Amino acid sequence: MSELYDVAAIGNAIVDVIAPADDAFLTELALDKGAMMLVDEARSALLYERMAAGVETSGGSAGNTIAGIASLGGRAAYLGKVANDQLGDVFRHDMRAIGAHFDTPPLIGGPSTARSLINVTPDGERTMCTYLGASTEFTADDIDPAVIEAAKIVYLEGYLFDAEAARRAFAKAAGHARGAGRLLALTLSDGFVVDRHRAGLLGFIESQVDLVFANDTELTALFETDDFHAALAQLRPHVKLAAVTRGAQGSVIIQGDETVAVPAYPVEKVVDTTGAGDQYAAGFMYGLAKGRSLEICGRLGSLAASEVISHYGPRPQVSLKDLAAAKGL
């Protein structure tokens, strides 16, 4: 089959609500700073009522990555579940407006479209409370083999490991990707996801995954150690290729015995770290789909991440294609 997409991603389709907050607010509402916490619909409504005024935008980790791919000029497709409601219509419109293919049928009846309430403290750290809603209804029936087989890279969002049906969808997508000779990528998404599904994630990585994305917290959680370098050494034999981000310290890419260290692009002020890892993955995979070297892939990832942490919101506000061109990438 001919390749129609650089990246096809599967993820939780979520609308983000992003607002400033201070540490006292987090303490008052018993929120674990810097973490992603799952909440029910009632808790979500309470938090939404108490949050400061902010911005509402289509998000979800893999959805943000697809927005980055599109901003770089890549061809992208997205698979995720929204409800047949107002937020679902917003999400669908936003994905199609950036040029991404998104045709997953909406959920009729059942939970409402997912939303993530993100409180950002003055240090740029984001604390997320997520109501998964309709996104948990994504099943193997929502996997479109034609889309998977037409993508150079199939990208899976680790957050979906929380749903049994979504894990079966991952297995189906992996089978179609393997059959078509496509590259399968997985992001670990969050340290709490790793804690909940460590054995399952390691098994899936060893048997199916070609490319792993993680940050240093997720990597050390995966191998239950506080030593980053020890965790990196333990990851190496389990995966063909991995890119691990370390915030201001940049990222480390490993492939076989090769190690590539990539510095972070400096930013004048870190405003909001929401979406930094998502955009790093976008830059990296765009470079990989275009046949660029691992170093350039990492630099594209770092550049995309630097853009998104300079403003509120998890998606680029300027053309990443133009930004990369200006940097000679």
String of helices and strands: EEHEHEHEHEEHEHEHEHHEEEHHH
The count of DSSP E runs of length 2 or more, i.e. the number of strands, is 13
Q: Identify the quaternary structure here.
A: single chain
Helix percent band: 25-40%
Main sheet?
8 strands, mixed
Strand content: 15-25%
The CATH architecture designation of the domain at 5-11 and 61-80 and 95-104 and 134-326 is 3-Layer(aba) Sandwich
Q: What's the total helix number?
A: 12
Distance between the termini: 29 Å
- The name of the CATH superfamily of the domain at 5-11 and 61-80 and 95-104 and 134-326 reads Ribokinase
- What do we call the CATH topology of the domain at 5-11 and 61-80 and 95-104 and 134-326? UDP-N-acetylmuramoyl-L-alanine:D-glutamate ligase
Key attributes of the depicted protein:
eight-stranded mixed sheet; alpha/beta; five-stranded mixed sheet; UDP-N-acetylmuramoyl-L-alanine:D-glutamate ligase; about 325 residues
Provide a short characterization of the protein structure.
This protein has a domain of 230 residues: 3-Layer(aba) Sandwich (UDP-N-acetylmuramoyl-L-alanine:D-glutamate ligase), CATH 3.40.1190.20. The protein contains 12 helices and 13 strands. Strand 9, helix 7 and strand 10 form a beta-alpha-beta unit.
Please give a structural write-up:
The chain is α/β, with parallel strands linked by helices. The chain has a domain of 230 residues: UDP-N-acetylmuramoyl-L-alanine:D-glutamate ligase (3-Layer(aba) Sandwich), CATH 3.40.1190.20. The protein has 12 helices and 13 strands. The strands form 2 sheets. The protein has an 8-stranded mixed beta sheet. It has a 5-stranded mixed beta sheet with strand order 3-7-6-2-4. A hairpin with a 5-residue loop joins strand 6 and strand 7. The longest helix is centred in the middle third of the chain and has 18 residues.
